[in-house]
Design a protein that fits this description.
This protein is mainly beta. 10% of the residues lie in helices and 33% in strands. Strands 1-2-3-4-5 form a five-stranded antiparallel beta sheet, with no helix packed on it. It has a four-stranded antiparallel beta sheet with strand order 6-7-8-9, with no helix packed on it. The chain has a four-stranded antiparallel beta sheet with strand order 13-14-15-16. This is Topoisomerase DNA-binding C4 zinc finger domain-containing protein. Residues 12-33, 128-154, 241-274 form the DNA topoisomerase type IA zn finger domain. Keywords: DNA-binding, Plasmid.
Length: 276
């Protein structure tokens, strides 16, 4: 099917009156954009029709940025959608201000508004990302606010690190068994007992692994560990456990309804799987 035309001749920007173009955003969402970058207006693309009633990228809003107010300048909080397209947040529209606030529901209108009582979300820190070496680790909370974790502020980096009392947990706990898959390719990583949801499982602490092993009688499942050792020998003979499709992830063992299988650890970005 042919894509939408680049120039939407039938529409004009409601902010400045200039023509609109049709483009895909980084997360593959089609939108109408004003040709004037100084205007910056954007509108929803709905079955080939522009919804000009709502500017997705306004220059102002009803919510002034409290961080800017403290520093003697004027900024406005603009609503954005997160990477997963499910977690909206509010960010200041001034380049000099890094303030980001989570969203809460306005009881009066039922729509979302910035939670100004919460601390602004971190956009940087003193902790350099151990994987990409370019980004900084920032702390986040799970959706149910039951746990905190650290992620890299670089969009292309998938680093995920547990929180240890307000700092990233970068030191491995060596009291558990070694991860057989990591050991097979010369990496010295250990399994650590963690609580995921309502289950306690052992998880490899390796930055690029994350292999999970279920707990049986207070210990890692010995049968599954033996199975991992056998698979590790195959990786050792091959000299690698890298994903053959994306070349960036590593293969680990997942449990499916039909038994174990190999899958790339970069899922859902990479959906490559292999039979064990």
């Amino acid at each position: 099917m042919a894509g939408p035309p680049r120039i939407a001749a039938d529409y004009r920007c409601k902010e400045c009156g200039k023509p609109l173009t049709v483009r895909r955003s980084k997360n593959r969402i089609i939108r109408f954009y004003c040709v004037d970058s100084a205007c910056g207006a954007g509108y929803e693309y709905q079955n080939g029709v522009a919804n000009l009633d709502i500017n997705l990228f306004p220059k102002t809003s009803d919510h002034e940025c409290p961080t800017c107010q403290e520093q003697g300048r004027t900024g406005y909080l603009i609503r954005h959608i997160g990477k997963d397209s499910k977690r909206p947040f509010w960010a200041c529209n001034t380049q000099a201000c890094p303030a980001i606030f989570p969203e809460i529901e306005d009881s009066a209108t039922g729509s979302g508004k910035p939670n100004l009582e919460a601390k602004p979300l971190q956009t940087t820190s003193e902790h350099v990302c151990p994987r990409c070496k370019k980004g900084r680790l920032v702390i986040r909370e799970s959706r149910d606010q039951s746990r905190s974790f650290w992620v890299c502020n670089q969009k292309k980096c998938d680093t995920f690190i547990d929180d240890a009392g307000g700092v990233p947990d970068l030191q491995q706990d060596t009291t558990g068994p070694r991860c057989p898959l990591c050991e097979a390719v010369g990496q010295d990583n250990y399994l650590k007992l963690k609580t995921i949801g309502d289950k306690s499982v052992y998880v490899c602490q390796g930055m690029d692994c994350g292999q999970k092993v279920e707990q049986v009688d207070g210990q890692p499942d010995s049968k599954f560990l033996s199975h991992l050792n056998d698979i590790g020998m195959k990786f050792k003979l091959a000299g690698t456990r890298s994903c053959t499709k994306c070349k960036k992830g590593v293969m680990r063992v997942n449990q499916g309804s039909k038994g174990p299988f190999l899958a790339c650890n970069r899922y859902p970005k990479c959906k490559h799987t292999e039979e064990v």
